[in-house]
Every structure is written in C-alpha cells, then in structure tokens.
C-alpha cells in the first residue's frame, strides 16, 4: 500500500502520531482511494463500507491533520441534575456512615418508616456510590474442617414439615469463633426460623455446660414457646445440652454432617453479625462482659430497628406482633 499520494511521508507520520486503530483504518481508506483513481464506489466495495460512511469521513478529514480521523466523543454535553433535596442526601449518607452494613434497600425502608421519605433503592445506591460509601466485602471464608461425629446420641434429621409453621416451631443454633486481639471467644447464636428473632451470647469456652446455659437464657429471652431446636453435630450440642432439651420437652434435630445449608438461617445470621458488628468495630477489647454487651445491643437492634428483607422490610418484632394480632397469615 502506498501513501505518498495523500501526503509525503504519511506512513512515518502515522507511526509518530498517537492515533487509534480505527483512525489508522480510515487512513487506509483514503490511501487506497487516492491510489485507485479516486473511485469512491470501488473503495466502498473494497472495504465493505457504505457510501454515507465514506463521504462523512471524507468531509471531516483534513490532510496533515490525522486527529480528524478520530471519532468524536459521545459523552453528553448536558446531564440531568438530581432533584433529591440536600437534607435527604445527608440523611442517607449519615445512615450509611453510622452503619456501613446497611444496604440501599434497608436505607430505603428506614427513610420511609422513620422520615416518611419515599426514594428508590437505585437512587440511594447512586448517592452512596458518589460519596464513596460502596465498599467491596473483605470477608474471607475460613477452611471448613471435618468434625468428629459421636453416634452415641440418636440424630433426628429435620424434614420439610417442621419448617416455618409458626413462631417457636423451629429455632436454629450455631457457634462462631470470635477472635479479639489474639483472644478466642465463642459466640452462640440462635434464630427463630419463622419470625427471624435472634439471640446471641459470647462465652470464653465451647462446652456443653455453656451451651446448656445459653439454651436456658434463650428460652427466657424469646417471647414464645420453643417446640424444636436444630443444631449441627458439634460436641457443644451433645450431652448436657441435649439432656436439657429432653427435660424441657424440646425436640432436638441435628443437621446432616458437613451440610451447613441445613442451618442456613443461623449461618446467615452469624455472617451478618460478623459483617455488621465485629468487622467494623475497631474499639473491641478482649473482655467477656464488654463483648456480651456489644452483641446484646446489636441483637436488640436487629430485632427492633434493622429492616429485614425476608420479612418485606419489617423488623422481626414488628412481624411477630402483626402475626400475634392475626394481621399476617402464613409467610410474607
């Protein structure tokens, strides 16, 4: 291909000038066009382009100014300005900064519930993004270890008929290791599968005595009777814990080995506590009383303030009260 009919030394110039591959491709059009008798229709057939495209770029191109072969910016010159009041934007930013775990959907529910402000979740998400308040999750999943199974206690496996019938029909319990300044603590967490009401407590050791103590405190804390409990096959849920369930007439179900999806609700609840409490609190101190006060305050906030997406953005206590009054039938 020759380029001297367009401009002497144009090939060397195209190498020196920083132009895009699309601009170089258009330069080849006009090089071929000038070298083949300036035949526009023949050039269009050769490069499989429409005449409108060829003549549009021919009018735009100026010899010696290779930048004229670049496509113009498609960025809009004017943008739609947000009509959201500054006070609303400030409330959204304050809610997010106060609790970085609040998603745009939970903030939407809080704005409507507490301030009477109706705003779409997409608008809230754009505001959070523009203020740099959207962060990637830094949670790292730990290595799953195979637990030793003790077959001395009969394992009752739960069936579909035992799920989500009424408050207290099934409560899931699990343990989470909490590490604070190289000190290891054990967080026992329970959640009612129907109302999502939760209860948590932190212990220094993971034993059946502590699990039994947790069960007793759980039954006192819940506003309804517990009919069945589901746990994994951990040693802390055997012996004294299992005996306490039998003495109180509570059915004790065990999940299948190495199947955390059987306890999916409490697993998700523990993940929420990690993300919303332990991950962002830099003032934690390794003192059992302090840690229990923190987890108790967070559980109370979860039950009475934080909107729950699975409950159509009602809080667990709001949902339980409506169910108790007969204003809700079945699941939402």
UniProtKB/TrEMBL annotation:
<dbReference type="InterPro" id="IPR001584">
    <property type="entry name" value="Integrase_cat-core"/>
</dbReference>
<dbReference type="Pfam" id="PF13518">
    <property type="entry name" value="HTH_28"/>
</dbReference>
<dbReference type="InterPro" id="IPR036397">
    <property type="entry name" value="RNaseH_sf"/>
</dbReference>
<dbReference type="InterPro" id="IPR009057">
    <property type="entry name" value="Homeodomain-like_sf"/>
</dbReference>
<dbReference type="InterPro" id="IPR055247">
    <property type="entry name" value="InsJ-like_HTH"/>
</dbReference>
<dbReference type="GO" id="GO:0015074">
    <property type="term" value="P:DNA integration"/>
</dbReference>
<dbReference type="GO" id="GO:0003676">
    <property type="term" value="F:nucleic acid binding"/>
</dbReference>
<dbReference type="Pfam" id="PF13683">
    <property type="entry name" value="rve_3"/>
</dbReference>
<feature type="domain" description="Integrase catalytic">
    <location>
        <begin position="163"/>
        <end position="324"/>
    </location>
</feature>
<protein>
    <recommendedName>
        <fullName>Integrase catalytic domain-containing protein</fullName>
    </recommendedName>
</protein>
<dbReference type="InterPro" id="IPR012337">
    <property type="entry name" value="RNaseH-like_sf"/>
</dbReference>
